[in-house]
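Good morning,

Both structures are done.
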Amino acid sequence: MNASPFQSRRLPILPIALSAVTALAAGTALWVGRQARKAEHAHPPIGKFIDVDGVRLHYVERGEGAPVVLLHGNTVLLQDFIASGLIDDLAQRHRVIAFDRPGFGFSERPRDRLWTAEAQAALFSRAFTQLGIEAPVVLGHSWGTLVALALALDFPDQVRGLLLASGYFFPTARLDVALTAPVAVPVLGDVLRYTVSPIFGRLSLKGVAKAMFAPCEVPQQFFDMMSREMMLRPGQIGANAEDAAFMIPAAQEFDGRYHELRMPVTIVAGAEDKIVDPEAHSVRLHEAVVHSKLLVVPNTGHMVHYAVPD
């Protein structure tokens, strides 16, 4: 039977659709890359750089006295500690060093290794030696608490004390891990962080910030200090996703080692934290580390260092 005139003129829909999607993805990737470069030009580094084991780390240092090291959580940059007022307050009586963790801000995150909490801690241990930071108190917030713990457990002689704020300490199910897991997958993740992820991030960033600060309002200085575009660069989106993927395994590993902590440990959490359940993590860690001190701040959420910087 001869094909009908309609059938003979049928267009190859699938190839055309694939070509259109490919062109759209390529155009989006070019736009995302351009936005990242514009963000870095508009918001240049505010600190110094040090090369540690082939990794360029960006850090801010202020003040004199006994050293305090600050390690930020996911999503944000070291400017989080400037916006909260912690750096200025501490610098009045301490030597304060705040790092951009690998892949965040202007710190590099080479793809020749897995950036677990232990790997990040080993990098900072060497940075301490190069910068002459002797036995600091290490303050970690959120994901940064895992790096602080890894430093204290793997390099105990280099840590004088720990302050763990809004931390995740025990393996529990996390929706954010499931949602960001594809971005951490090689190849697929590269495509996502140059296409879908930055667009979704622009739509959700304000909501994420509200959830982090709830029940408190997001302070004006938070976004004044940290550029949205810097937080939405493909490299930082990838670092966020990889860190999220390593979070549960890190807590699983450390769960059996908390008894090894011998230095002073202070645990701080917001009672209304919607990101990390303070009862399941901070209170439980206090029970596991018998010599620790615990402060659960009422009417405060995940960004507890803004609410009670003192």
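Second structure follows.
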Amino acid sequence: MKIIVLGNQARSMSNFWSVLIRHMHRAGHEVVCCAPPGDPGSEAALAAQGARMLHYPLDRKGLNPLRDLRTTGALLRLFKDEKPDLLFTSTIKPVIYGCIAARVARVPHVYATITGLGYAFEADSFFKKCVNRLSALLYRTALAGAEGIFFQNDDDIAIFRQSGILGARARILKARGTGVDTSRFALAPLPGLAADGSLEGPPVFLLIARLLEAKGLEEYAQAARMLKATHPRARFLLLGPAEQGLGSVSLETVRQWQAEGCIEYLGETRDVRPYVSAAHVMVLPSWREGTPTSIMEGMSMGRAAVVTDAPGCREVVREGYNGYLVPLRDPQALAAAMENFIRQPKLMAEMGANGRQMALEEFDAEKVAARILEDMRVPVLV
């Protein structure tokens, strides 16, 4: 069986779907990963999992219909040449244009994963509402030919139903995000935490996210500014790549926060583990997620979390057990939750241990991958 795994970046495909790809390969299937070119390191990592790499053109963030038409045409040619038995696709544009091309190319089995709704579904302006209507139309067209659609939280399913995207016969499937490789993201000791629960050094909070408004970066900066006034030793780190286009936060803005002394920007990295190891608490004040991978990775390494009570985020954090849920776009509430850890450092260890247990029991990537393959009815050939 030939399986094409289609995504918008080789890096995200390597980071999030490596375990699934390895499972496909071990089951005796030919796996072809398709992503835009330009990341040989991630492509080498995918090849190490047993996949062959192909490229196609994609403008991830743009709204130029001619470029998207070029993407659809390139995927159509690719599918006709490769003749896959199954397409597994994730992220917005690969789902939309991949499913449309696969339908025309008569790919026998097509599965899509909705990893988050993105900019178009924020709908807090006239322009976004127009983009939302167009996106709903494209999704409805694309997913009409899908054999199954994976969702990562119930809120996204409800929105897709309300928007008229899902037909009455749509086969809805649930997945625990991409899962987390609990052996790779192994339990790490909390730095400077004494046996009596006291903290020898400064408390360190870490937000891992692309530089986007919807990740709650402004709220994080405001909360950090408040806490610095009363807890000047506390550190508030931000790790993630810059973005361009709609909904992005400029590097100039981030550097201004850094100049104020409230945020420390660490740039981007291929391996987040050293940064998670050096932190005490993970933070993600996102407006909505599919399922937040950075929080699952932190949980797996034994880190408590502070996230918004928003779709996706509330799938991974239980209030008072492995972290705190705070109201959306509320810097004061975010600051108060983080201050709980500053005042009671022992909570870092207690909630971090609970998070590790949740990661092992509910979010382990091996279990998630096995369930996805089972739901897609992919046979074991070896």
